[in-house]
Amino acid sequence: MTLRGRGRSAGLRLRRGSRRARIWVLRSVRRILHWWRVSLQFRVVSTTMLLGLIVMVLLMTFLYQRISDGLVDSRTQTAREDAAYRASEIQAKLDSTDQLDPESIRQLAWSLIRQQSSQTPDQTREVILTPAIDNTRGPERVPTMSIGSDATVLPTELRQAIAADPTHQHTQLVSVSRGEGTVPAVIVGQQVLVPQAGRQELYFVFPLDREQDIMTMMLRTFVLGALVLVILVGLIAYLVTRLVVDPVREAAEVAGRLSSGRLNERMRAKGEDDLATLARSFNDMADSLQTQIRQLEDLSRVQQRFVSDVSHELRTPLTTIRMAAEVIHDARADFAAPVSRSTELLLAEVDRFDELLGELLEISRFDAGGAVLDVEEVDLRAVVDRVVAASASLADNKGVRVRVLGADKPYPCDMDPRRVERILRNLLVNAIEHAEGRPVHIELAANADAVGVAVRDFGVGLQPGQAAMVFNRFWRADPSRNRTTGGTGLGLAIALEDARLHHGWLQVWGTPGGGCRFRLTLPRHAGVPIARAPLPLSEDSARAGHTTDAPTEQPPEVTSGPLTGPLTGPLTGPLTGPLTGPLTTRHGPQPDQRTAGAAVADGSGPS
Questions:
Q1: Spatial distance between the Cα atoms of 41 and 414, rounded to a whole number of angstroms
Q2: What gap in Å lies between CA 15 and CA 282, rounded to an integer?
Q3: Residue 205 to residues 146, 165, 420, 463: CA-CA distances in angstroms?
Q4: Is the same domain home to 77 and 131?
Q5: What stretches of 260-379 show up as alpha helix (H) in DSSP?
């Protein structure tokens, strides 16, 4: 292999190793962030350890600095005293000599310097003798002499200070070379008078090797002690937080099991501390909720049975009344005009009563969970055509033009055609009723997993907050508005249940004076969940580009059951209407306000 090939191979291995290291670091960071988000115990322990480490670092820094300053101050004071004594001894010997020739003076000076220096392991003392800055007699008489460090370690500031004040000692901390590194040292300097040579500067250098070794050992001890202490603090925090977190986790698990319907789950209550009190209070709350839920379930079953029984029992007398009404209606030509008109009204109200009983029976089947689908593959376009044809006379009477958009291709879908036709008939009749003579648009669309149909009118619309009540039983946006089609007030509620039975979505959007848009979304294939709606719900969504490919949120869960009485609350939801008011609990996002004055209701899906 050539050198170039080897270099490329080494570079490739280096890049791979660097990439693996980056991936490992990123995964570790993500794992730590995940633990931080999901674990209260991890947050408490890691925060405690981090704060403990910060406190230990600050404390170690303070102690290290104080001890270091103390050692340096002590060593400096000792050095000053030792240097003063030895300088006075050197000066005395210089003053007492009677050999004044230059060679003798140099030999004497060298001898004195060598005597005062020390290179023992316990104490190192270096001596430097150099002519003073202002010495004019010439360095040839007594040149610079040193034992240990040379004169290059002498700071200029120290020499200038001695020249300015020659009668006192001067001290300075410097660094001197030791092998491959440096160590701090204390330099004590003063002037001495050498016969025939004039004023000389005498320096004693005291390296702080021993003090540095002491501080290094202390730093290692501090670091090791801090790490051990932080780990112990972390273990203590872990044990302490477990005493608190474990009951909280148990409460969360028990609450989750309660919410899933296992109402007999309870927490373990031990002792008499705050957590035991919390557990007992939680269990008392669970007992109360279990009692109330069972009472509501019993009441719901009783009222479901009551509605079903009443509806069935009224069938027989209603059939008799209908037969009598039809006989009277057939003979209305023999009656006076007021009586004849009364027979027509009687038959119309009997028909409406019959329709109401039928829808009450249908609602009771939904509430009892007895409604089933008769699924077959049907073209949604054909169902829309039948609904439009059946509502043509009503649209003509109202002066409303019904326009179908997107009907240029088939829309096969697994559905119960009878129920889907009932949904669309209710939506279209409702739109014609509230269109105020303006057009009604029906739009069809489909994507890979769903088909959708939207019914849009441009009539009175909905006030903010009304959309959430559109699918309530017997609810009317305007109680003073007269019905012209004989509706029962249960059509949209049944339409919602039919949509949910298909695992589909039925939603409404509206603005005051701008009309409403109902959107029905059905899965294209039975059992396949809907990922996204093929049609936008609101005009704002359409303008924002929320088309068939736009992802949507998961639909909120809606459950219904008949209850009576003015009971409201998070367990039961709003209860309205005698004997048939829905028990509705919504989970998921609440209806939002898309624009000022716009109302959106999620019947069972996202927008």
A1: 50
A2: 57
A3: 10, 20, 103, 94
A4: yes
A5: 274-330, 337-368
Final residue of a domain: which of 362, 392, 423?
Answer: 362
3 state DSSP class of 53: helix
Average pLDDT, integer, range 551-564 = 36
Looking at the structure, tell me whether residues 302 and 417 fall in a common domain: no
Residue 5's contacts (CB-CB under 8 Å, 6 or more residues apart) are none
State the Cα–Cα distance between residues 536 and 550, nearest whole angstrom. 9
Domain endpoint, select from 362, 388, 422:
362
Report the distance separating Cα 346 and Cα 164, nearest Å. Answer: 129
DSSP 446-459: E-SSEEEEEEEE-S
Any idea which of 14-18, 84-88, 455-459 has the lowest mean pLDDT? 14-18
Please report which confidence band the pLDDT of residue 424 belongs to, taking 50, 70 and 90 as the band edges: very high
Residue with tokens 């932080």: 230
Q: How confident is the model at residue 2 (pLDDT cuts 50, 70, 90)?
A: low
Asked if the model's pLDDT at residue 365 lies above 90, the reply is no
CA distance 428 to 469: 18
Contact (Cβ atoms closer than 8 angstroms) between residue 302 and residue 309 = no
Q: Based on the domain organization, do 303 and 425 belong to the same domain?
A: no
* Number of structural domains found in the chain: 3
- Cα 552 from Cα 541, distance rounded (Å): 11
Tell me: do 387 and 358 sit in the same domain: no
Domain of residue 466: give its range.
Answer: 373-553+589-601
Q: What is the pLDDT of residues 134-176, one digit of tens each?
A: 877 755 667 888 887 888 888 989 999 998 898 899 999 988 8
Residue 194 lies in a domain: yes
Longest dimension (CA), the chain: 170
* Residue 279 vs residues 241, 264, 292, 550: alpha-carbon distances, Å: 17, 15, 20, 46
Phi/psi zone of residue 486: left (φ > 0), alpha (ψ -120 to 50 degrees), beta? left
